[in-house]
Specification:
mainly alpha; 11 helices; about 0% strand
Amino acid sequence: MAEPVRISPAVRRSGMLLAVLATLLWSGNFVIARGLQGRMPPVSLAFWRWLLATLLLLPMAWKALRSDAALIFRHKLHFFGAALTGITLFNTFIYIAGREVPAIHLALIGTTAAPVFVLLLSYLLFRERLPLPAYLGALLCCVGLLVLLTRGNLAAVGQLRLSGGDLWILAAALAFAVYTLLVRRRPPGIGATSYLFVNVALGTVLLLPAYLWERSQMAAGPLWDAPAIFSVAYLALCASAAAFLLWNEAIRRLGPARTSLFGNLIPVFSTLEAAAWLGERITPTLLAAFAFILCGLLLAQWQPARKREA
């Protein structure tokens, strides 16, 4: 069994900052997924988001693509898996779930399940072993999320029931967990920008059949009013291009299991955004949950100092 990988303090701090910024940018995704219901069908929202992101990334990636082309083609199966799970399936499933599940619920279930899936798959597939503080930190994060989910009444955990929308979120979390593990094993020699561009472009192509089918079932196209245009632009620029670049680099520095735990910040950020934009109250329950999650994240990144050799 592999020994836990040690990370230098400077790399760990920079990786943590990148992961936090990525989750901050992603947090609006769940609010938009719920807020655009009635204006934009789920597959259409995903397709236009990623198509615009592809166009935004193309000028940045063009030069690198020319030099990385041979490596990209050699690792085509890796890119197919990463594009399918991280681009085609993950957010599409979230948008489908958003038709019946509130935004905070979307963020809670997705971010609770994804790190658990990453930890399980990391061990089952790669026998990756983390230090004990990482597992204790993950447990604290889950407690914080359960505090939010049950509104502070942890005794109600046994009464929770999953709806069809909840199952879509769990499927999304599993897809993102697989994507996170694939990113950790990014083929060497391929730059971050070209790696992201190929995943986004290929994921958009894989979405095209579902998009065309959805359009064939609609009496009218998406409603392109100001909120829809702004939302798609935010998703493409901030929650796609910028957030994925930050997240992929955080995975490279921290590893998939540690990085995935930062996803637990998304429901906290989403709740704060709902309070700012929708006038919802910041409750003591939210503050308690945030404390659990923050402590869990810090504990998961802590590494005991090495004993000096005699």
